[in-house]
């Protein structure tokens, strides 16, 4: 079992507002976490890191939390950062949270906001793609400010679109915001789990033609070896390909992955 993560700045950004972390504790536990800070908010590069580290603490403390318990404990602990850094902007914690972990050969993922989950087995490539119709993710941080929560909920026609491909069966679903997508499944040795920020949607060819995110699954999870920093090696190779072919990504991109 191994875990690794990386994050890179998008070419239209001046600071990377993504953060990812992954750790493995063989033979029975590993986690992968990605947070994507809101570009319209302030100090979110710092806030995304705080939220990810808070989620790490939550998982290591108790990986049996329900989605609501996990969300509440994680955001409340993250909010304690304001006691230490009162100068932080009140919206610094505006970030998505994608958390996946394996414990005793069972995979659990809680996906708050938008992004992608990939689960590759020996016989299938399963994926979950989440986006908000408004383009504005439903951040956990809204629970810290009731007025902001009400304003967000008042947005018209804002739905969470989830497209799942499980055993090659594609299912589109619509959820209300603040409904976390939950994925659970037994895993076997050799399975690959990856959580990826929505920056995967921002790749363009040299002629600016969009690259469908599905076409990039192999680039992000086609690991030749599973030792050491296997994600960093794979993405470094992909970045060299992008440079050679003129491929760019306007948004920050982050990935955290587990090899069972």
CATH-assigned homologous superfamily: PPM-type phosphatase domain
CATH topology: Phosphatase 2c, domain 1
Please estimate the helix content.
10-25%
How are the strands of the largest sheet arranged? 1-14-11-6-7-8-9
User: Spans of 5+ residues with little confidence (pLDDT < 50)?
Assistant: none
Overall geometric form: globular
Q: How many β-strands, per DSSP?
A: 14
Measured between the Cα atoms of the first and last residue, the distance is 5 Å
SS class: alpha+beta
Query: Approximately what portion of the residues adopt beta-strand conformation?
Result: 25-35%
- What is the CA-atom radius of gyration, in angstroms? 17 Å
State the domain count. Answer: 1
How many individual helices? 6
Note the run of SSEs as H and E: EEEHHHEEEEHEEEEEHHEE
Q: Can you give the mean pLDDT?
A: 96
Supply the key terms.
five-stranded antiparallel β-sheet; 260 residues; Phosphatase 2c, domain 1; alpha+beta; 33% strand; 14 strands
Task: Describe what you observe in this structure.
A hairpin with a 2-residue loop joins β8 and β9 (169-175). The protein has 260 residues and is α+β, with helices and mostly antiparallel strands. The protein has a seven-stranded antiparallel β-sheet with strand order 1-14-11-6-7-8-9. It has a five-stranded antiparallel β-sheet with strand order 2-3-4-5-10, with helices on one face. It has six helices and 14 strands.
